[in-house]
């Protein structure tokens, strides 16, 4: 069981370039999330999705876009990369319903992005 | 404005002793709290959680205490092991919100 898989693990971008961070989960979780973690800071929510076709902004959505065409995949798109987007990005998912563990996020290993 | 604070960036403990990691929050509407552990180059992994209707939850060597009046929770690890060396994040959730609010983390080093 792979859980949450993120690609790439590392990427260096030039200012103004765009790229997509991929995230896929095989746990049939409805809810998926993108967080970023800056040094010395907690994880900040960028976007989330409660199911295929439904996405919403989190705390720090500017400069990013997402889509959710399937339950499994939740890609994060960076348009016009800026140095402020240098960060480690984590994708996460969680199941819904009243079962135990419904409030627990399962994270991917992270994608480290540097914008120069 | 940090809603979840972990005021100790780092903590060192001798193997076999107790580790106590602290977390304070400002939003009284938070009703669910979680602790995550993170090793380098890995994603955070869930450790233990507590609902606001409880004041203690135990799972093996890990116990989380919640003091709602003080808006404070703590994670106790007894006995501490070298494999517990990691960054620990406190997180809080309010009702049906999707925004898990994370603290900045505390780096625990358990010395052999």
Task: Please explain how this structure is put together.
The complex is a heterodimer of chains A (116) and B (112). Chain A has strands at residues 4-7, 10-13, 19-25, 31-37, 43-51, 54-57, 64-66, 76-78, 87-94, 106-107, 111-115. In chain A, the strands form two sheets. In chain A, strands 2, 4, 5, 6, 9, 10 and 11 form a seven-stranded mixed sheet that branches. A four-stranded antiparallel sheet of chain A has the order 1-3-8-7, with no helix packed on it. With 116 residues, chain A is mainly β. With 112 residues, chain B is mainly β. Chain B is globular, with a radius of gyration of 13 Å. Classes of the chains: A mainly beta (116), B mainly beta (112). The A-B interface holds A 4, 31, 33, 35, 40-45, 48, 50, 56, 58-59, 90, 92, 103-110 and B 2, 4, 9, 32, 34, 36, 41-46, 49, 89, 91, 93, 98-105.
Compact summary:
The complex is a heterodimer of chains A (116) and B (112). Chain A has 116 residues and is mainly beta.
Total DSSP helices of chain B: 0
Q: Beta fraction of the residues of chain A?
A: over 45%
Shape of chain B: globular
Number of helices of chain A: 0
| Helix-strand category of chain A | mainly beta
**End-to-end span of chain A in angstroms?**
36 Å
Number of DSSP E strands of chain A: 11
Give the number of DSSP strands of chain B: 11
> N-to-C terminal Cα separation of chain B, in Å?
38 Å
């Amino acid at each position: 069981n792979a859980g949450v898989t993120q690609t790439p693990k590392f990427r260096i971008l030039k200012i103004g370039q765009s790229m997509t961070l991929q995230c896929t989960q095989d746990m049939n979780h409805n809810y998926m999330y993108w967080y970023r973690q800056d040094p010395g800071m907690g994880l900040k929510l960028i976007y989330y999705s409660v199911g295929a076709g439904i996405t919403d902004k989190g705390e720090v959505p500017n400069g990013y876009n997402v889509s959710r065409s399937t339950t499994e995949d939740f890609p994060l798109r960076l348009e016009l990369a800026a140095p402020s987007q240098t960060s480690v990005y984590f994708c996460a998912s969680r199941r819904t319903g009243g079962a135990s563990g419904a409030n627990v996020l399962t994270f991917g290993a992270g994608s480290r992005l540097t914008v120069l | 404005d940090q809603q979840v604070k972990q005021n100790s960036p780092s903590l060192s403990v001798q193997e076999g002793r107790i580790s106590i990691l602290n977390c304070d929050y400002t939003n009284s509407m938070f009703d669910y709290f979680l602790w995550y552990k993170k090793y380098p180059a890995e994603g955070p992994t869930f450790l233990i959680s507590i609902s606001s209707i409880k004041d203690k939850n135990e799972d093996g060597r890990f116990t989380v205490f919640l003091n709602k009046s003080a808006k404070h929770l703590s994670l106790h690890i007894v006995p501490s092991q070298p494999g517990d060396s990691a960054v620990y994040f406190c997180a809080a959730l309010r009702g049906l919100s999707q925004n898990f609010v994370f603290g900045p983390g505390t780096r625990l080093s358990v010395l052999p």
